[in-house]
Specification:
heterodimer, A: about 140 residues, mainly alpha, about 0% strand, B: about 80 residues, 2 strands, about 5% strand
Chain lengths: ~140, ~80
């Protein structure tokens, strides 16, 4: 497994874990009351910060566990990286457009912040899954 | 539309004909990861023209001896 494929796996696992923890905390706090009344901002920021930190720590840990592993990045890595980023970016646009429409329609800030966070999460997952499939199967030809 | 590559290659045969060169050796000589050599050999990845020339140069053979592309089907009249 190349270094870049390991990074895609880390992104997938960390993103899925961070969002699951966030959603779990928010839903457990709701306890029957409407979701917009649940305090979410600090939890959102902490899970985003923790996921960034976890990614860094895991990458360092990979280097410590297997210091002789190659960190070479070649043409194929770059092409797969671009494909994954390009694919994942679709959800960033969907999130931005959805948030803009929700703001114009006067939705609660809770929903606007959460739709953006959800789309960031989906973007990261879709990008990482695309990269992993491209590494495991084949790089698509158009 | 996504379609599988039609490019085939003889890298595996050429490696064995060149002193049983390992995938790692070839990867090092052309400056890519071993996984990329494996993907090219298995037809899961079509290398760039530049990388293809580097591979051919390692084996000291023309590009056509390494990579093959099927002839276009005859046009029906």
């Amino acid at each position: 497994m190349t270094h870049q494929e390991k990074r895609a796996w880390i992104m997938l696992v960390v993103s899925a874990t961070a969002y699951s923890v966030y959603a779990g905390i928010i839903l457990s706090r709701a306890d029957g009351q409407p979701l917009p009344r649940v305090p979410y901002a600090a939890t959102l920021l902490w899970t985003v910060g923790a996921s960034i930190l976890a990614s860094i720590v895991l990458e360092i840990a990979l280097g410590v566990v297997n210091p002789r592993a190659s960190r070479l990045k070649d043409d194929r890595d770059r092409q797969i990286g671009r494909l994954g980023d390009y694919t994942g970016q679709s959800f960033v646009i969907i999130g931005a457009v959805a948030a803009m429409l929700m703001a114009m329609a006067g939705w609660d800030r809770f929903w606007i912040a959460n739709v953006i966070y959800l789309c960031f999460f989906l973007s990261a997952v879709l990008g990482a899954v695309t990269k992993i499939i491209a590494y495991r199967k084949s790089f698509p030809q158009w | 539309m996504v379609k599988p590559t039609q490019v085939t290659n003889s890298i595996r045969a050429l490696r064995f004909a060149n002193g049983e060169m390992t995938q790692a050796d070839l990867a090092e000589r052309i400056g890519v990861t071993r996984q990329t050599v494996i993907a090219i050999e298995q037809g899961r990845y079509s290398p760039s023209l530049e990388m293809a020339f580097r591979i051919a140069r390692v084996f000291a053979v023309p590009l056509d001896d390494v990579f093959h592309y099927p002839d276009a089907p005859e046009e029906e009249t």
